[in-house]
Amino acid sequence: MSNFNIPLGLLNSPILKLQNFKNVVEAEKKITFPDVDNIYLAADRLRGVAVHTPLQENLNLSDKYAANIFLKREDMQVVRSYKIRGAYNKMASLSAEALAKGVVCASAGNHAQGLAYACRKMAVKGIIFMPTTTPNQKVKQVKLFGKEFVEVVLTGDTYDDAYHSAIDYVNSHDSTFVHPFDDLQVIEGQGTVGLEIFKDSNFKIDYLLMAIGGGGLASGVSTVFRQLSPRTKLIGVEPLGAPTMKVSMDEGHIVALDEIDKFVDGAAVKRPGDTTFEVCRQNLDQVILIPEGKVCTTILQLYNEDAIVAEPAGALTIAALDFLKDEIKGKNVVCLVSGGNNDITRTEEIKERSLLYEGLKHYFIIRFPQRAGAMREFLSGVLGETDDITLFEYSKKTNRERGPALVGIELKTKADFEPLLQRMREAKIHFEYLNDKPDLFEFLI
Questions:
Q1: Whether 227 and 326 share a structural domain
Q2: Is 380 tagged catalytic?
Q3: Closest Cα to residue 168, out of 231, 88, 112, 106?
Q4: 3-class DSSP state for residue 152?
Q5: Distance from C-alpha of 167 to C-alpha of 165, rounded to nearest angstrom
Q6: Mean pLDDT of successive 10-residue segments in the chain (445 residues)?
Q7: Are 335 and 210 in contact (CB under 8 A)?
Q8: Which of 22, 72, 81, 83 is catalytic?
Q9: Is the terminal CB of the chain with fewer CB neighbours within 10 Å at N or C?
Q10: What confidence score (pLDDT) does residue 303 get?
């Protein structure tokens, strides 16, 4: 059809632009884009398997940001994340012959649990490769969801080790590898989250925020909204320490990062998928990066204020609201809470990262004079009334005039920091501040 026969308004429509983009990319790179009709089919497949999770207005967040904030609660999914959707849809699209040979994945997190549950529901054999460093709690959860249909193989120290072992197994057993994100049926399964959001919203959605790791969830959901609600602003959210999609989109091609911060484990990958990259760079209006410390603060706030247990990747979108607060006032905003598989053993680390980010926790190397009363003078004359010492490591050096101590101090408010430094200088305390020295900080703390 010639463009001259198309009305100008339709020519500039997001749907037509998306179709033209798809045609070009599919011709050049042989990338097949997800299809909304197939996402509807996936929703039919998932009935009775995945929970239709609620879209809930959050009054605390709405008041805080003077907006209407709604949470899509995928943390309430049967496996506490959306991953069951893509895994099951992929398996349901396979032939009986392929299913008889079994399915395989590599994962240390939610994808493993999703695949395990899908194997149990479909009575299909699954082999799940996980790094030997995976916490026992996660291994037990995978076995719990998969029952007798799943075998867990612990191998290597990293995800990459587990991935290579999984591919070797697939090649030698002619099994099907179920990719965590870069697979068309997986993407379309995740897209059913978008159908539920659209169906449950009796209002115009101005902003929709989605966490990005490999990009499967964002690709599926954005495909739905680009067709059904093209004026909704679609925002992807990545952790600052793993900006894989952001860097790739800025560069205009896929970039594999050498190093990433793996703290937000559900959204920390070194390379986006071939398909997910193309879909996200066409569909998303923006990708923003959120510091891991801010994510930790949000996890604690969600638990304390709303009794929501969110994993780091699940809290990403809510953490992003602070970075959009000026433009979302008076708007209808949906934050997709992608998962709630938070390991309770990480609580102390989460609290520590939060305090550091908020400017409430500070570490010093302090050289106290080697004389009686020096420590007492520091406590009474330098520390403020609400300052609290949380770490003190000191070894007296009898042959030196001054002995170094590693000291951690927690403050009541961020504003207490400069007065503390001023009192230390006035008392002629010799100190070295560690928070802004990452190499030394990581070595000592």
A1: yes
A2: no
A3: 106
A4: strand
A5: 5
A6: 37 52 58 95 97 98 98 97 98 97 93 97 97 87 96 90 94 97 98 98 96 97 98 98 97 95 91 97 98 98 96 97 98 97 90 97 90 84 93 72 84 96 92 89 81
A7: no
A8: 83
A9: N
A10: 96
Longest dimension (CA), the chain: 92
Determine which one of 165, 219, 338, 354 is catalytic.
Answer: 338
What is the pTM assigned to this prediction?
A: 0.88
Residues 206, 66, single domain; the answer is yes
Q: Are residues 75 and 209 in the same domain?
A: yes
What is the length of the chain?
445
Note whether residue 89 is domain-resident.
no
Sheet holding 207-211, edge to edge: 55-57, 68-73, 332-337, 207-211, 233-239, 286-290
Residue type at 67 in one-letter notation: A
User: Is 95 annotated in the active site?
Assistant: no
Q: CA 171 to CA 169: how far, in whole Å?
A: 5
- The Cα–Cα gap between 136 and 109 comes to 12
* Residues spanned by the domain of 151: 102-174
Shared domain check, 301 and 369: no
CATH of the domain at 410: 3.30.70.260
Distance separating alpha carbons of residues 192 and 36, to the nearest angstrom: 9
Q: How far apart, in whole angstroms, are the C-alpha atoms of residue 256 and residue 214?
A: 11
Residue 380 and residue 418 share a domain: yes
The CATH number for 136's domain is: 3.40.50.1100
Whether residues 372 and 269 fall in one domain: no
In a domain, 86, yes or no: no
Q: How many Cβ atoms are within 10 Å of 269's Cβ, its own excluded?
A: 24
3-state SS class at 433? strand
Backbone dihedral angles phi then psi of residue 164, each to the nearest 5 degrees: -65, -35
CA atoms within 13 A on the CB side of 258: 0
Sequence-distant (≥ 6) Cβ neighbours of residue 404 within 8 angstroms: 365, 366, 367, 394
Q: Which amino acid belongs to residue 117?
A: Y
Which residue bears the tokens 């032939």?
A: 95
User: For residue 378, what are its two tokens?
Assistant: 């520091």
Q: Name the β-bridge partners of 389.
A: 409
